[in-house]
Amino acid sequence: MGTDDPLHIIRANLFYGLLDYTKSFPDFSIPQRFEMVSPREGKALLAKLNRSLMGEEKLLLYVHLPFCSSECVFCNAFPQKSNVDIQKRYLEGLLEEIRIYESSDIFRDRSVECLYLGGGTPTSFSTDDIRRVMAALRSAADFSESCSITCEAHIKDLLDNARIEDLARSGINRISIGCQTFDQQVLKSCRRFHRASQVEKLIRDAQTLGLSANVDMMTGLPGQTLEGVRRDLEILGDIAPDSIEYMRHEIVNPLAISLYRQHPDLLVSDDELFWMTYEAQEWMEKKGYEQNGSFTGEKYFPYRYHWLKGTPFVSFGCRSRSFTKDICCDKHEDLSLYLRLIDKGMPPIARFMLLNEKEKMYRSLFLSIQTTDGLDSKAFERRFGRDPVDELSPLMDRLTAYGCVEVDDSSIRLSKYGRYFVEDVCCFIIDEAVREGGYDTPARRMPHSSGAFTERLSSRLKLQDNR
């Protein structure tokens, strides 16, 4: 790989290694810009969120079910340990939160295009519990006839065939199975235990019932190798799920931090991570699997596609996030505080970011560039009254010089290798927005939940990352 090779340029100038990467896609935010919300301000902010939806006819809904029976090293969602009593209490709080939002008229005259049940692991709840949530939302809002309803699922929760059948009967038409890898040694380090044969059976069962089945995979896991990723790809080729999402391991979980402190040799080198990412994306492209950066339509990732096309989404549950064209709101992460506020009839909103005009421009690029259509330059000019290449310079100059984007009179799109390294492009856009905004140093993204703690660990681990 010569110094003028496009891949070398991306590796040298854009790629974020394991210790520098924090998950930024699929949406834009600047952690330094968030403002805290007092409980008494929650209703006023909910009203502001509703006003920001003026003129919107479609909504996406997300429900956060933050419980899981597993404690996986790679997880960045920080779920609660499965507990029947606590989950029952959480479910009642969740249903009450939906009622609070319904009373604010946030659903009025709007159609729900997609519903996504995420976590944690939603299947740690019974199917009857999931039905109750869906029934509450259907009672509060109008669902489109073609509404996509996705439920994330843990492999061991689905091993009984009847569970998939129950989910299908409840109205769910898409499942997303967290697999990450088939390498048994890596799975052991991550505290996960499953086999390719189990995943294949689940995929076949789901497809037989008419459900679309997605498999989540990862690169950069503790002790993972390039050869291991290649074996994973061979297995995926045989299993042939409807869609696959490859993500990069983000070191934010205390379990991962502890593991790397004890076994720094398990850290994947930046070079190996780079080629893992490249080969996974190249394989996906050859097999016709769409990813962020290459979405041509809603067929494989309906919720994600509508999100990237700018459809606002409203979320429910602790640690969930809502986003419109103007405002981003986060719920409280602390479960007990979330429930106490709901008991008092208060929206459990913890913080918000009101986007200024320049941040809206960055977000417009950030979202649009993750589809094959890219950013429509004329639409950008109509909305903001400015040319995107001129207005977002020098960001565009650098992305063009790195060979990540292609610009013509009508659009700004990712190049082939820009699509392969779309996560890095997204991180780069946010870092540029942070630098331009002059926010707190260092001018970079911050992990959503671990903040300076991970930054300190990162500095220590870098001293050991000389393999």
Notes on the protein architecture:
By secondary structure, the chain is of the alpha/beta class. 44% of the residues lie in helices and 18% in strands. It is built from 20 helices and 16 strands. Strands 9-8-7-6-5-2-10 form a seven-stranded parallel beta sheet. A four-stranded antiparallel beta sheet has the order 1-13-12-11, covered by helices on one side. Strands 14-16-15 form a three-stranded antiparallel beta sheet. α9 (226-239) runs parallel beside α11.
Summarize the structure.
The chain is of the alpha/beta class.
What global shape is seen? globular
The major beta sheet can be summarized as:
7 strands, parallel
Which strand-content bin applies to the residues? 15-25%
Distance between the termini: 20 Å
Please give the count of helices: 20
Q: Segments where pLDDT lies below 50 for 5+ residues?
A: 448-467
Question: What is the number of strand segments?
Answer: 16
Q: Please bin the fraction of helical residues.
A: 40-55%
Using the coordinates shown, work out and report the CATH topology of one domain. Answer: Transcription Regulator spoIIAA
Question: Which architecture of one domain would the CATH scheme give at its second level?
Answer: 2-Layer Sandwich
Q: Order of strands across the biggest sheet?
A: 9-8-7-6-5-2-10
Q: Measured on Cα atoms, how large is the radius of gyration?
A: 21 Å
Structural class: alpha/beta
